[in-house]
Amino acid sequence: MLWQFWRNPEFMRHCRSELRKGRITALVIIVLIVCTLTVLVSWVPQKARLEAMRRTPFGYLYSPSGSGDQIGAAIAAEKIAQQERIRQFETELPINTAHSSARALLFMQFGVLTFWSLLSCAQGISRERERGTWDFQRTTRLTSSELLVGKLLGEPIVAYFIVLCSMPISIALALEGRVRLSGIISAYFLMFMAALFIGLAGLWLSSLFESRSRGIGLIGAFAMYAGFLGVTGLADSPFRGLAALSPLTLLFRMTGQDQYSLMPNPTLFGGDVPWLLMSVLLYVTFGAWFVLMLMRTLKKGLQDVKLLSDWQAVGCCAFLNFVLYATFNPAHDIDFQSATDFVMFMAAVNLIIFFLLGLTMLSTPERLQTEARPSVRSLLLADGLPWPGLLLSGVVSYLLLIWGLYAWKAPFGFDWHTVAVSGGRFLIVLVFAVSDVLFIQWCKLTRLRAPLLKGILLLCLYYAAAGIVYAVLNVGSESAAIDTANVLTPVAAFEPDYHLLLMSTLFGVVLQLITIAFLISAIRARVQQPKLAIAAAA
Amino acid sequence: MIRLSALRKQFGSLIAVNDLNLTIPKGEIYGLIGPNGAGKTTTIRMMAGLLAPTKGEIEIAGVDVRAEPERAQRHIGYLSDFFAVYDDLKVWEYLDYFAHAYKMPEAEIPARIKEVIAEVTLEVKTDSIIAGLSRGMKQRLGIARAIIHKPEVLLLDEPASGLDPKARFELRVLLQKMRDQGTTILISSHILTELEGFCTSIGIMEKGQLLRSGRIEDVTAAESPARTIELRWVSASPDQVSSILSQFAEISLIDLAANEGSFSFAGSDERLSEVLAAMVSAQVRLISFNERKTTVEDLYMKVSHHEVM
Fold first, then answer.
1. For chain A, which end, N or C, has fewer CB atoms within 10 Å of the first or last residue's CB respectively?
2. Which residues contact B79 (CB under 8 A, 6 or more apart)?
3. A300 and chain B: CB distance < 8 Å anywhere?
């Protein structure tokens, strides 16, 4: 049933409810009207240009010089040339019209399919939760993978129908417009891959939100779409390959947009890779992580959700770092002047990675209480605190950094001093990330409503306050301001003249370690409360 | 058929279900009663596989719900107190969806849909869009969904809330029919009259714990060994009746008014017949002499401390 998606009950349900006869007829009519209008919009300017050419005897401002006969001959020749241009334009008019219509339709199909996929999938599960039907789906015998396939293809079924309806027209127009068949197939393949990928991302987002917080999920979906399209901008960065995550990059290239058609291929470990292959590789690998998280959580209640186990989070961290090193192109010399610049960039990226992975490893109060035990063995339990997983992730990302520095020793050079200093930078980043993540874990054990959101907001407030303190102190003494910033925030990791043994940096790390110890003991105290309640009841 | 052992569920510092042990044999209609917040819904949701227990085991039809959730779902029909449906489907499409989702054999599905629709008397609405159905009809459709795959165990959480009296009666008839076919039914409610004369066993739950559990007669007998006998008479004084009753050691708590009263009797049926004979021979003209049946409500009021978490 998994691969025969047309027999998947969830897919069938969407087809039945959303593709009734009346709606299908209306959609087909709309698609035909839009296609006709698109062709007309492409044809009208071309036709106007042709008329203008016919009205003008010469193709350009023509002022021949010479004797009367010579001028007469030149004018006659130009008239013939102009007639030839008009004849050629007339011959090419249908081809040009078809080509530009096909291009416009392709972008419209892309917009409809990807945006609809994201939007419908991003509400797929939260809407079911709101309706109260989600529990009934969970009590059926449908497996997580069957539910996933059914929802991924079923939720945006109307968008797929619209695209499939307009596809014959756009393919015919593209062929008429002298577009190669392989190009057309590649464009549609990419479009469907992108739609599946963004749909997966939407489903993942939807699985995290209940009915009350559905609005936040939708905002997240819009942000995700903006990011999805925005990565096109990475095409002009040292991580050019990551631009392949957005199908726009390749679509622009395929449809002959000037800036993109001249763009070189992305690199993987320094070797050229075709854009299409790069897109497919990124969709498959990133999509696999979304699938993993969805498979772990789809048939569980929100209170039992833990997106990634500790080991999977370590794997994810390694994957993300690996992708960055693999797509890095040192030939692009705009951003990184030295190994230090590169290390600082990787430290900043890893700060975000650690924080996000920490969020995926957060346990719900129920799970944490179920499994956590104050013993060494509990460190690697599936439902323990996130810090051991983050620690391992830190070690893995640091080892990958050493490998990356060694791999790119040609442009940057390789020396052990840089490696040692990088360790210090990564330590600072890791310690601050662990402390922030543990703070949010602690928030989840309190009676706060929406603890994750409030925890993140409180952290933002803390860093904003640290920023204000820095700004105020900076008026009097810059060194005092820097010292304070080093104590309160991980900015020391991004200082080009970093020194681990700087007192304020050390003090900052020690302070965070004390905070971590305090948070762990506070979490343990909260976790043990129910046990005490049981003992009291007994 | 249903076995829960040391089942516990904690929400933060709150223990919603505390080490619950329960066994329900095949063919029983088990009423789980208790005030709101007693832990009934949490227990049922854990049994349906919707909520992971903090600890303990749940076995339905011999299948461990935690270890093999998909296999266990084959045996479970679940209905919650709200009847959420897909408004944009037709009645038969809705049932067809769930029949496929429960992975019933393809060939059996059309006949089963027809059968279930007839059982919930929605035949005339088979081809109607669900959005156009009344609330009662939607609730009946929800029941049809829960039984479409012929579950051996039916878990019903407040199934009659919001149903009109006729629909409640029809629900009772349907559930009794299913019981007769061998289905084990667990039904939770805080409306005690809903379960009266319908359940074969009951469990009284409070603060996450099962205070009493078993067949209604057994629980009643264990709770009140003495029966309450009510009587009415004419042309005799209460003192005369009282003096006759006082002759029997099994009788206590005599409460008599002018022509009627009651007493508590802790003896056998033979001895009770002797009490009746003594009254008759003393020429007390009795109008009625009957045992007051202990209702589920009586039992609950007696056992419960009416505490919620």
1. C
2. B142, B143, B145, B146, B154, B155, B156, B157, B159
3. yes
Give the pairing type, strands B251-256 and B184-189: unpaired
Q: Which of A191, A181, A185 is nearest to A159 (CA)?
A: A191
Query: Is any Cβ of chain B less than 8 angstroms from the Cβ of A4?
Result: no
Task: Decide: residue A60, CB within 10 A, 0-12 exposed, 13-18 middle, 19+ buried.
Answer: exposed
Q: What is the pLDDT of residues B183-216, one digit of tens each?
A: 899 998 777 677 777 788 888 888 888 888 888 7
Strand partners, B234: B285
CA distance B125 to B103: 24
Q: Which residues of A touch B9 (CB under 8 A)?
A: 366
CB distance from B51 to chain A under 8 Å? Answer: yes
Q: What is the mean pLDDT of chain A?
A: 84
Contact B52 A304 (CB under 8 A): yes
Hey, is the C-beta of B295 within 8 angstroms of any chain A C-beta?
Answer: no
CB atoms < 10 A from the CB of B268, how many?
Answer: 10
Query: pLDDT value at position B181?
Result: 84
Please state, for a pLDDT cut of 70, what percent of chain A lies above it.
89
CA distance A440 to chain B (A): 16
Residue A152 above 90 pLDDT?
yes
Instruction: Please say whether the beta carbons of A18 and A158 come within 8 A.
Output: yes
pLDDT category of residue B258 using cuts at 50, 70 and 90: confident
Angle at A492 between CA A489 and CA A493, to 5 degrees: 105
Q: Which of A32-36, A126-130, A507-511, B109-113 shows the lowest mean pLDDT across its residues?
A: A126-130
In the block, residue with structure tokens 């029997």: B248
| ipTM here | 0.81
pTM, 2 dp: 0.83
The residue in chain B having the minimum alpha-carbon distance to the alpha carbon of residue A525 is: B13
What does residue A211 show for φ and ψ, rounded to 5 degrees? -60, -40
* Contacting residues of B for A139, CB less than 8 Å apart: 48-50, 73, 76, 78
